[in-house]
Write a structure and sequence with these properties.
Elements: H1 9-24, H2 28-35, H3 39-46, H4 54-64, H5 68-71, H6 87-95, H7 110-133, E1 142-143, H8 144-155, H9 161-173, E2 177-181, E3 192-196, H10 199-214
Antiparallel strand pairs: 1-3, 2-3
Length: 220
C-alpha cells in the first residue's frame, strides 16, 4: 500500500470520492444507490465531517471493482471500468433512461451554469483590461467589431456586441478611454471608435488597475 503522507485519512477519502464522481459521471445520489451507501453518509465523507468505516470503503471498492490496496495507494490513479458490460455500465443502462438524476449529464445544474458564466465574464473583463492597459492595441481608434476580433484572436474569447460595449463604456466613464462617433456613411448603424486617453492618464489608470486587482474588485 502506498503512503498517504500529505493529508489526513478524511482528506484522502474525500479526494477519492471526488475522483470517483469525476471518472464515472455519477452524482452523489447515483454513487449512493450504486454502492449501497446512504447519500447522507457519502455527503459527510465528501465534506470530511465523518470517519469512514472499513465496511464503507469495501462497499465502494467492491461496487467499482477496485482493489482496496489501490484505493489507498497515492501513486495509483483509480481505474474504473465504464464499458457497457461493467457493473457501472449496466447500472447506467438501467437507471439513465428513468431520469433519476444519478448521472451528471442528466442534471441541468443551474449553479454550475452560473459559475461558468461568472468565470467567462471574469475572463472577458481581464482580456479587455489587458488590451487597454498592457498592450498598444487601443493606442489607435478601434471599432467594437475590431476589438471583438482582436480579443478572440489573442485570448480565444467570444464576445457579444452588447457585452464588449458595456465593458468599454465603463472605461470611457472612468476616463481611461475616449469614444468618438464615426462619420456618416461609415455604417448604416451608429458606430463609435474607442482609443486610450493621454499617456499621463494611462499611467494613472495602470496604477489604479493594480490596486483594483489586489482588492479583487474586478472579481465581482
Amino acid at each position: 500500500m502506498g503512503k498517504i503522507t500529505n493529508m489526513t485519512l478524511a482528506e484522502w477519502i474525500s479526494m477519492r470520492i471526488l475522483e470517483i464522481l469525476d471518472k464515472t459521471s455519477m452524482t452523489l445520489a447515483g454513487l449512493a444507490n450504486f454502492s449501497e451507501i446512504s447519500e447522507s453518509r457519502l455527503q459527510r465523507y465528501l465534506h470530511k465531517n465523518s470517519t469512514i468505516s472499513v465496511e464503507a470503503v469495501a462497499k465502494l471498492c467492491d461496487s467499482l471493482s477496485i482493489p482496496m490496496a489501490h484505493f489507498f495507494d497515492e501513486s495509483m490513479p483509480l481505474r474504473i471500468a465504464t464499458d457497457a458490460h461493467s457493473n457501472l455500465g449496466r447500472f447506467r443502462s438501467k437507471f439513465f433512461p428513468l431520469g433519476k438524476k444519478f448521472f451528471t449529464d442528466e442534471v441541468a445544474d443551474k449553479n454550475q451554469l452560473q459559475t461558468t458564466q461568472k468565470l467567462d465574464h471574469r475572463r472577458q473583463r481581464e482580456s479587455v483590461m489587458h488590451l487597454i492597459f498592457d498592450s498598444d492595441y487601443l493606442q489607435d481608434p478601434r471599432t467594437i467589431e475590431q476589438v471583438i476580433a482582436a480579443a478572440e484572436k489573442a485570448y480565444q474569447i467570444t464576445f457579444k456586441v452588447y457585452r464588449i460595449a458595456s465593458l468599454l463604456r465603463k472605461y470611457v466613464a472612468e476616463g481611461y478611454l475616449e469614444r468618438k462617433v464615426l462619420p456618416r456613411g461609415f455604417s448604416r448603424s451608429r458606430q463609435y471608435t474607442y482609443c486610450r486617453t493621454s499617456k499621463k492618464r494611462q499611467i494613472a489608470a495602470e496604477e489604479e488597475i493594480a490596486v483594483i486587482e489586489r482588492t479583487n474588485v474586478l472579481n465581482r
